[in-house]
Amino acid sequence: MTSTTSRKRRPYATRVPAEERRTQLLDAALRLIVTSGHDAVTMDALAERAGVTKPVIYGQFSGRADLLDALLRREQRAALSQLFALIPAETDMRAGEPARLVTETLDRFLRTVRETPDRWYCIVMPLPDMPSAFHRARDEARDAVLRRAREIAEWGQRRVDGFDPEIAGHTIVTLFEMAARLVLTDPERYRPERFVGSLRAAIGLVTPRVGL
Amino acid sequence: MTSTTSRKRRPYATRVPAEERRTQLLDAALRLIVTSGHDAVTMDALAERAGVTKPVIYGQFSGRADLLDALLRREQRAALSQLFALIPAETDMRAGEPARLVTETLDRFLRTVRETPDRWYCIVMPLPDMPSAFHRARDEARDAVLRRAREIAEWGQRRVDGFDPEIAGHTIVTLFEMAARLVLTDPERYRPERFVGSLRAAIGLVTPRVGL
DNA sequence: GTATATTACTACTCCACGGTAGCATTTGAC
DNA sequence: GTCAAATGCTACCGTGGAGTAGTAATATAC
Fold first, then answer.
1. Which is more confident, B129 or A88?
2. Any residues with CB less than 8 A from the CB of A105 and at least 6 apart, and which?
3. Key word DNA-binding present in the record (chains A, B) (predicted)?
């Protein structure tokens, strides 16, 4: 009964070309990370989620670390592409208002986050068991974004005394991440316009009633 | 040569009472987490760092999870005690200005962070391999802090149109965490007064030159 | 229809690490 | 000085999970 001759063999997964299989495996890994954290991505769990067996994974990736690294690079590249597409070019900056630019960018950014939640989830959320490599990649991506944010802050500096563009750059990036996290956590409660409205109020696009 | 009769036996660690040993082990674990992340805290690595062997750890804690949980609870309790000691009581709030209160609290908070870096490091920094339990505890602590921050924001609400106290509360907490992270990362470059100065500038404690 | 190349599966190995049984050493009480 | 209690150490076990050798199945070309 339990001999190999009588044990039913698992039906084969549909054969697919290598590139499609890679994408399928990365999508499955992303889902596992987003729902259960990095340690949930065991090779067994991933094989099960993808509907294959472990050797199929090893056919596409040299190991678990290689797969996670490929996933990280894919999501990071896509996220940064999306993000930098939202930030106007420097030449556009000169003609406008920094405060307005930041609030409009925030609005577009949060709508992008809502449209591609898994991607942004693994970019901005604190994820259980997140490996060092993911942390480093986030830090590097943040550094790139910080450079643009600082340029925007320096542009705005001319208007307010006591302004520290480096700190302002960090603040902009951190507030964008915070907003993204809340939008992802509860999209109905935290709609983009709440953040945009608050940012407008905070940086003076509406008139304060009484000077503080 | 390699028989147990000739293998030198490890000299005994100095005997210490249970409570002191627990503290020593938790301190060693905190150091490992801060320097290398949670996965670096294996029972072997911890024994080595503490200068004992594994059964000594099991004499104080039922297992690895128990030890990490004890560490988390110790640091969390101490951090929240420190933090709530910094925030004035509600009765004090009525007599003052919310903006001034927030900036003064930020200043005191960042000085506290500099004085107890390991504690705050494991409270605010993104740590490699951080388990779900640590994430949940941070979320719960943040929720508690958010309630106070929201009260402060509601206090400030009366002064500015378009104000969303919930979003403002999240913003205050997130900016405090951001400042703490930068202070911990590079204390010479990110001195508390840079954040305090920027916060003052941002919320209008200095006069804007030109309305935006 | 058959053969072969390509892709997938079963059953297994290996090891890092959590955890422990049994023994050794030290310290304090008498 | 001796003895026993308390604390610490060595050597080992069990297992989850990464990874693979050998075999099976399928799909396409002829």
1. B129
2. A86, A87, A88
3. yes
